[in-house]
């Protein structure tokens, strides 16, 4: 016991020094952990204000927390006099290994964040992206769920979406219907044009502004082609499209104006 007391008396200055360092390290750890929590909360609030998906906001906030907390631990260890260079090297190597192993997932995550921040589309929009088309049902961290008109579900990696052109059919409130109607060369073009206009005039879902267009666009091989381009509200696009196709055919038939169709003449030669 006397030996221990003598050692304490002889090294009292060193003990006090390390005790102070330990207390400072604990204070750094306590304050740093609070700062990490504060940064996590502020990150989540920032994402909430941007109306970003909560899953993405939570994930990014947890990454911010981990980074600040790791920095706090390194600072506390450094305060105790422990060499942290080796720890930093190990963390760097581990981060590189994880990054290489998960580069596909990280790419999908980054693309998911870009989708939510840049908002090329939102849930409920009908889009074409990455060679697929459908209504957006879910935008998740790593993938986006599309539903096709025939009720198929497509799960697309976010990197595939952001790495290709995106066509959003729902963003604008109005759309133009583009029809090409061919009539025979023997048809009266003025009459054919009047028939097409009469069909459009009877369609109540068409917008008055912009006005529709009916014009000859091409003298094709077997037909004179008209472009018929009315504008509708985006929600009315397909119902109006289908009805116009049917009504135009009926109106042309009633006016005895033929719509050419491919024909093949077969000549038979009898050999003697």
TrEMBL record:
Residues 105-171 form the Mechanosensitive ion channel MscS domain. The keyword Acetylation does not apply. The keyword Nucleotide-binding does not apply. Gene3D superfamilies: 1.10.287.1260, 2.30.30.60, 3.30.70.100. The chain crosses the membrane at residues 15-36, 56-82, 88-118. InterPro entries: LSM_dom_sf, MS_channel_1st, MS_channel_C, MSC_TM_helix, MscS_archaea/bacteria_type, MscS_beta-dom_sf, MscS_channel_2nd, MscS_channel_C_sf. It is a multi-pass membrane protein. Keywords: Cell inner membrane, Cell membrane, Ion channel, Ion transport, Membrane, Transmembrane, Transmembrane helix, Transport. It comes from the Bacteria. Residues 63-103 form the Mechanosensitive ion channel transmembrane helices 2/3 domain. GO terms for cellular component: plasma membrane. Homoheptamer. Belongs to the MscS (TC 1.A.23) family. This is Small-conductance mechanosensitive channel. It comes from Pseudoalteromonas gelatinilytica.
